[in-house]
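Side project, low priority. Logging it here so it doesn't get lost.
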Amino acid sequence: MTITRVVLVLSILAGMPAIASAAAMSCSIHPGTDTSAATLQAKATTTMEAAKKIALTKYGTTKLEVSEGELEAENGCLVYSFDIRVTGKSGVDEVLVDAGNGKVLARHHETPKQEAHEAAAYKAAQMKH
């Protein structure tokens, strides 16, 4: 079973929508194995502020709050990942913006339960390192 299939199966079993694989996202920068903050920042050609504006463009005049934003390697792509809270809507919309060309690669909604699950998985992964 390929890694992509494993991720999709685990996402389905966990009740979480899967972010598209690197191949499906067709990103412009593949950061490789060195994912230190300094290395990722050096490879990014789009700024976080520019990426944030791009991530928010499809929301129109809705009241929004970017609760989290970071530059990261996700599914083999260098992306800015933003958690966007929309007034009157529970959970967050996660938007991935290509750190090279500024294109929106993926967007999906996470319920509060999915958010908590993702946060717990992230914390567990951080504790291993």
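Brief comment: The longest helix spans residues 112-128.
Revisit when time allows.
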